[in-house]
Amino acid sequence: MRISISLSVLLGTVTTALNILSDPGSLGPTPEIVHFYYDQWPTGIAVSASGPNVGGYTVAELTSNTTEIPFPSAEINTPPGGRVNYTTYPPTSANYQNYLIGVQSVVIDPADRLWVLDTGRTSLPDGTLLLASYGGPKLIGVNLTSNTIFQTIIFTPTAAPGDSYLNDVRFDLDPSLTPSGQGIAYITDSSSEGRNAIVVVDLGSGEAWRRLENHPSVHPDPDFVPWVWGQPVYMNPGGNQTITNVGFGADGIALSADKQTLYYSPVATRNLYSVPTALLRDRSPYAVQKTNAAVQLRGTKGVSDGMETDSNGLIYAGNVENNEVVIFNPDTGLFQPFVRDPRFTWTDTFSTGADGYLYFTENQLWLSASYQGGVDKRQKPWVVFRVKLPGNGTKVTQTVGSG
Length: 403
Prior knowledge:
The strands form nine sheets. This protein has a four-stranded antiparallel beta sheet with strand order 1-30-29-28, with no helix packed on it. A four-stranded antiparallel beta sheet has the order 2-3-4-5, with no helix packed on it. Strands 8-9-10-11 form a four-stranded antiparallel beta sheet, with no helix packed on it. It has helices at 277-281, 287-293, and strands at residues 32-37, 45-46, 54-56, 59-62, 68-70, 84-85, 92-93, 103-108, 114-118, 138-143, 148-154, 166-172, 184-189, 197-202, 208-211, 227-228, 231-232, 234-235, 244-245, 250-255, 261-266, 271-276, 296-300, 307-309, 315-319, 324-329, 334-340, 347-352, 357-362, 382-388. The protein is mostly beta strands and 403 residues long.
């Protein structure tokens, strides 16, 4: 004999208030809003101790909390005939050496000079990214006292091939590093279709060479999918074009406070890597092999775009999947959250100020049309935030020609 017992329970809603644990959504110091962008979409931010604050989009000076003007002039931001060369087939990016084509990064060096990193690449109206031409990829130094250009380094196609994408740059002004005595720049090449690498530049001679080219540590993980605001992010330009994984390589970059170690990370991974800077500068016959063998995986910090260092030697990086900025302490090897806020939509670029603040842009990159089926879901304004650095941290400084 089978006995069946059926219980029917009618459940109603609970009206009694309960303390159910939930994600608070924020952590750490309260971010202060420094600037709203209502016009052009920003990438970089550069905070000077003595001169103007500068943002990249191409390049502008932030003149108030909501306004910008072209920097260092409107002329250099406006190439004659435009940024596209339609005389080639297919079209290519223009090759002007004295005009800005596609600025990705603006950085204040340890001597409070501004450097503008031009990828030399621009896009067609349909979003197609064009190859660079010789003369376009360059590094421009600007004196912030006079707002005049004091140096322009044009990269050869060997240092910056047409499919390169020069993304971010850091500086060491120690005169003992090169015969020129003017110091070294380290640049990430994050190209989604090219050969990712670290580009090393002699600031005196202008000579540049590539290291870690095609090394696994600078490459995107082909199977990687970032998640932002609970949603997977793919390259999805729409219009029946193929949906692919996000494919950006080495992007964020930071120098240790003592300049002995370079930290870097592709966008399409959560990993943080490091390599001794002495090996990147090495020009001996076995330099490539020695540099490749010296790369270290320092751990997982989350998906990052920009990175930065303070005077205490702490490394800051965005973690866009968790709406936060994290700290890596090289002395302990540990990661920890620094500041978290639901308004963080894609932490792009950092700048440490002499005022003891960490500045960073939030630009909603993942909501742009290239990732959202051709529909631009970004909402103005885009924002520059700042937070006070811990432990009385400040910008790492050097004078020109000093160690």
